[in-house]
Amino acid sequence: MLESFTYQVNVHWQNGRIGKMSSPELEHSFSCATPPEFPEGVPGIWSPEHLFTAAVNSCFMTTFLAVAENYKLKYENFSCKALGRLSREKGKWMMSEIVLKPELIICAEESEDKAVKVLEKSEKACLITNSIHTMVIMEATILVSEICI
C-alpha cells in the first residue's frame, strides 16, 4: 500500500511584495517576500529562494540524523551551510544549483570512511532533493573530536 501525506501551507498577501506564510499544523507564521534582487523586492525577509534552499538543507539534516542513527554513527556535532544559486537557464529563472556544505564532527573511535558513507547516503536519500531538478552538490568537512559525550 502506498502511503501519502499532505502538508498545508497558506500564504496571505499583506502589502507590496510581502505576504504572511502559515500552516494550521504549525505554531508560528512568518513573512515572505520577493527577494531584493528583483523589482520591488524586500531585503531582510525570507524569500521563496531562501525557502527552497532551506527545504533542501533541512531535509538533508533530518535525513542525516536518521541515517546516522541507523548506522550507529557517533558524532559530536552536525551543521550544514547551503548556498542556493538562482540563475537564468534557457530563458527562465530557476534555482539551478544548491551546494550543501555539511560539517560533521565525529568521535575519535569512528572511521572517516563510515562518516563519508553516512553523509553520501543521506544526500542520496533526501526526499526533497529527489523531488527537484536542481543540481545538489555536497562538499563535506569531517573533523575528529577526542572528547565525545
UniProtKB/TrEMBL annotation:
Ranges that cross the membrane: none
One Pfam family from the record: OsmC
SUPFAM superfamilies given in the database record: OsmC-like
Protein name: OsmC family protein
Organism whose genome encodes this protein: Fontibacter flavus
